[in-house]
UniProtKB/TrEMBL annotation:
PANTHER family: 1,4-ALPHA-GLUCAN-BRANCHING ENZYME (PTHR43651:SF3). The keyword Zinc does not apply. Pfam families: Alpha-amylase (PF00128), Alpha-amylase_C (PF02806), CBM_48 (PF02922). Residues 85-99 have a biased composition (Polar residues). Gene3D superfamilies: Glycosidases, Golgi alpha-mannosidase II, Immunoglobulins. The active site is at 495 (nucleophile), 550 (proton donor). Keywords: Amyloplast, Glycosyltransferase, Plastid, Transferase. Belongs to the glycosyl hydrolase 13 family. GlgB subfamily. It comes from Punica granatum (Pomegranate). This is 1,4-alpha-glucan branching enzyme. One of its GO terms (molecular function) is 1,4-alpha-glucan branching enzyme activity. SMART domains: Aamy. GO terms for biological process: amylopectin biosynthetic process; cellular response to fructose stimulus; cellular response to glucose stimulus; cellular response to light stimulus; cellular response to sucrose stimulus; glycogen biosynthetic process; starch biosynthetic process.
């Protein structure tokens, strides 16, 4: 069933309980809509549009045959302050209106695991389908438990712990003692705000539920709409429901600048504003008459052929709301993030949907071995090419990709697969769009933002929040909670934290690590306090939630708990590493310095966890180049097919692409991130559809004729076994599964025993693994001694040179490596290895072996006796680990 509203389709769960299917012709609403009897599901309004974008022609959440969407068919889904700093003068919102291998030492390879994961996913679907069928036969009236409703009830009973002493930061980092005055003042401000919230708002838990009072709220008697707009002289609620009549529903203002109106239900009990109606608030402001989308709107849509967006009153009947079925996954110890963008996640040149991402991309992420998906561009943004960072409607999921219920279905599916879902949240700035966003909302420059130049980011062309405003705190804290509670996200990557923490926003500033750069007049204490509050709120209500701060400055205490005096993030995004790789890639191989690489990867603060990446979406954007493109450039267009000879550029590029990713993951942090497609060296760049831009000085910046050709992800390239991309994808998948098996990123034991500038060799230990990297472009070393801690037998756990991964197969995977007693490279023991040029090999202590884990780089299907990495059946048994053939690549199909 699909309801049509002005420029939007609302896919709905087929309900066992039928709703009246009344249809109202255009022009029904004349005069006061309270005199008409409107069906709560009637969404046929006066002005009809076609679909706002072709994306809505795709399948919705409820068109899939997947088990997690079949609940409906089974009959189980039935029910599912003021602008100053004085908190006492804030808006008073308290008043409301009426497998095992035959050989235990040989672990199945990554492709076998892929098959197992796919079979597991398919089995889950089949089991759930059988459950649904059984349920339908047993009792169609049994309501399905909505896990989100249970969680919401529990959250209301939660008390966020009071502030701690905030002094442990000085024990962790004694260098902070020299800046104690600043840090104690910061913590004192945080305590003051917490105490004020307790006194005037009933605590941080209640304060962070601003969306229950501001914006639209529904009760049994009707709909209440409130908006904080102290600069407005008058206000009225307008929309399809009252024929956009500004005199029909005028609002009243209280002493705190909050405008309010109550709309009682219609005579037949239906809501005064039908689900799906377009709504706006009309205000008489110091800047003139202005129609704005409500600041707390939950959904907004751009009608086709029009520029402005429209707010949508989104309140579907209970039987049409998506019901969450799956619990949140536990917080993983090792965080492996797959950074994604829903819109560009299709191989086709189009805007993809939440539903397609759910059905096509999420199983891929699971198969690749990642345990978390980080999703960009969720908050509504009127400018698609902003990558989602110029937010216009903070509480609304982007309508480009589908409806709010589509997004919920997508997240629920991720949870079913055991994936943690992180949202790329933007609280560092807002779009300067006056028509659709918060800018000049009530006609004043300093409503949600700082006035004047302090409220404007000259590089981003956006507005900057006033974190010292009580109502801004309410808005942003409630926004963070809304996404966690309503949509069941599992945490956030906070964008632009560096910009927030400093009044100079990190622009034209080179951070050297001197502590004077972090604690002084350039620090925005109000913003620091907000970050402490939001982390406190998130972890107080959602202990398993994950927060990642995007900070390039290296600000101390960012990842120390708030109770200890820190800012409270779980992880810092280790942004300097990607920049270092670009710097290195511009040099000749002979100029690479092992010590420089190691220092960049390990330069992070004690007890502050980091998420590291070799490249993210930033490096994939037009104007920049991905690592694969830096390495192989134009050769990628002509020499990636396996049926034609490779080139030295391609050989070098594929080898270094794998080594860079592995050493980054091995040494760079406690978490790892990869932007979708980069795992297989996605060619070219990302370029959003755009037209030519005419600048005031007469210059013209050419566009791309609004093409989606480079705003997509060619997953088909990584899946094509006749292209070299597949080997790079197989390696990345293997790398993830080795980390899953051994947990080396979070191992307490880490020791770098060798960084040889002459041999170009790096050796280090993480847990019971020994990593050996040979970055030399020509020299291979036999019987090369590497130090280790533990005695015993080691085996190959991962080999970047395996044929499966597009390598030359020079390392034996059946060889056993026994340790020798005696100190070497400051290690008590050592063993001998073969280290081919441009190869990384991971050796695992056999005693640490886990029966079902995957040894990556060994592709051995026992029943077919297939040699590792060779994608063809061989008639005679092939001995694994033999000497490399003259031209192994040419033998691949």
């Amino acid at each position: 069933m699909v309801h049509t509203v002005s420029g939007l389709r609302f896919p709905c769960l087929p309900s066992v309980r039928k709703s009246p299917s009344s249809s109202y012709p255009p022009g029904l609403f004349h005069g006061d809509r309270r005199s008409s009897s409107t069906s709560p599901v009637s969404l046929l309004l006066r002005k009809q549009y076609h679909l706002p974008r072709k994306v809505f022609a795709g399948k919705s959440s409820y068109d899939s045959d997947s088990s997690y969407l079949m609940a409906a068919a089974s009959g189980r889904v039935l029910v599912p302050g003021s602008q100053g700093d004085d908190p006492s003068s804030s808006a008073d919102l308290s008043k409301t209106s009426p497998t095992d291998s035959e050989d235990p030492e040989v672990i199945s390879d990554s492709t076998d695991l892929t098959m197992e994961v796919e079979e597991e996913i398919e089995q889950e679907k089949q089991d759930s389908l059988e459950d649904d069928d059984a349920s339908e036969v047993a009792d169609k009236s049994t309501p399905l438990m909505d896990v989100s409703s249970v969680e919401k009830e529990e959250l209301r009973k939660t008390t966020i712990p009071p502030p701690g002493p905030g002094q442990r930061i000085y024990e962790i980092d004694p260098m902070l003692l020299g800046f104690r005055e600043h840090l104690d003042y910061r913590f004192g401000q945080y305590r003051r705000i917490r105490e004020a919230i307790d006194k005037y708002e009933g605590g941080l838990e209640a304060f962070s539920r601003g969306y229950e009072k501001l914006g639209f709220s529904r009760s049994a008697e009707g709909i209440t709409y409130r908006e904080w707009a102290p600069g407005a002289k008058s206000a009225a609620l307008i929309g399809d429901f009252n024929n956009w009549n500004p005199n029909a529903d005028t609002m009243s203002r209280n002493e705190f600048g909050v405008w309010e109106i109550f709309l009682p239900n219609n005579a037949d009990g239906s809501p005064a504003i039908p689900h799906g109606s377009r709504v706006k608030i009309r205000m008489d402001t110091p800047s003139g008459i202005k129609d704005s989308i409500p600041a707390w709107i939950k959904f907004s849509v751009q009608p086709p052929g029009e520029i402005p967006y429209n707010g949508i009153y989104y309140d579907p009947p209970e039987e049409e709301k998506y019901v969450f079925r799956h619990p949140r996954p536990k917080k993983p110890k090792s965080l492996r993030i797959y950074e994604s963008h829903v819109g560009m996640s299709s191989p086709e040149p189009k805007i993809n949907t939440y539903a397609n991402f759910r059905d096509d991309v999420l199983p891929r992420i699971k198969r690749l071995g990642y345990n978390a998906v980080q999703i960009m561009a969720i908050q509504e943004h009127s400018y698609y090419a902003s990558f989602g960072y110029h937010v216009t409607n903070f509480f609304a999921p982007s309508s480009r990709f589908g409806t709010p219920d589509d997004l919920k279905s997508m997240i629920d599916r991720a949870h079913e697969l055991g994936l943690v879902v992180l949202m790329d949240i933007v609280h560092s700035h807002a779009s300067n769009n006056v028509l659709d966003g918060l800018n000049m909302f009530d006609g004043t420059d300093g409503h949600y933002f700082h006035s004047g130049s302090r409220g404007y980011h000259w590089m981003w062309d956006s507005r900057l929040f006033n974190y010292g405003s009580w109502e801004v705190l309410r808005y942003l804290l409630s926004n963070a909670r809304w996404w966690l509670e309503e949509y069941r996200f599992d945490g956030f990557r906070f964008d632009g934290v560096t910009s927030m923490m400093y009044t100079h926003h990190g622009l034209q500033v080179a951070f050297t690590g001197n502590y004077n750069e972090y604690f002084g007049y350039a620090t925005d204490v109000d913003a620091m306090v907000y970050l402490m509050l939001v982390n406190d709120m998130i972890h107080g209500l959602f202990p398993e939630a994950i927060t990642v701060g995007e900070d390039v400055s290296g600000m101390p205490t960012v990842c120390i708990p708030v109770r200890d005096g820190g800012v409270g993030f779980d992880y810092r995004l280790h942004m300097a590493v990607a920049d270092k790789w670009i710097e290195i890639l511009k040099k000749r191989d002979e100029d690479w310095r092992m010590g420089d690489i190691i220092n960049s990867l390990t330069n992070r603060r004690w007890l502050e966890k980091c998420v590291v990446y070799a490249e993210s979406h930033d490096q994939a954007l037009v104007g920049d180049k991905t690592i694969a493109f830096w390495l192989m450039d134009k050769d990628m267009y002509d020499f990636m097919a396996l049926d034609r000879p490779s080139t030295p550029v391609i050989d070098r590029g594929i080898a270094l692409h794998k080594m860079i990713r592995l050493i980054t993951m091995g040494l760079g942090g406690e978490g790892y991130l990869n932007f979708m497609g980069n795992e297989f060296g996605h060619p070219e760049w990302i370029d959003f559809p755009r037209g030519s831009q005419h600048l005031p000085d007469g210059r013209v910046i050419p566009g791309n004729n609004f093409s989606y050709d480079k705003c997509r992800r060619r997953f088909d390239l990584g899946d094509a076994d006749y292209l070299r991309y597949s080997g790079m994808q197989e390696f990345d998948q293997a790398m993830q599964h080795v980390e899953e098996a051994y947990g080396f990123m979070t191992s307490e034991h880490q020791y770098i025993s060798r960084k040889d500038e002459g041999d170009r060799i790096v050796v280090f230990e993480r847990g019971n693994l020994v990593f050996v990297f040979n970055f030399h472009w020509n020299n291979s070393y036999t019987d090369y001694r590497v130090g280790c801690l533990k005695p015993g037998k080691y085996k190959v756990a991962l080999d970047s040179d395996a044929l499966l991964f597009g390598g030359h197969g020079r390392v034996s995977h059946t060889a056993e490596f026994f340790t020798f007693e005696g100190w070497y490279d400051e290690r008590p023991r050592s063993f001998l290895v073969y280290a081919p040029c441009r190869t990384a090999v991971v050796y695992a202590l056999v005693e640490d072996e886990i029966e079902d884990e995957v040894e990556v780089g060994i592709k051995e299907k026992v029943e077919d006796e297939v040699e590792i990495g060779v994608k063809e059946k061989v008639e005679d048994k092939v001995e694994l680990g033999g000497e490399a053939e003259e031209d192994p690549i040419s033998e691949l199909p």
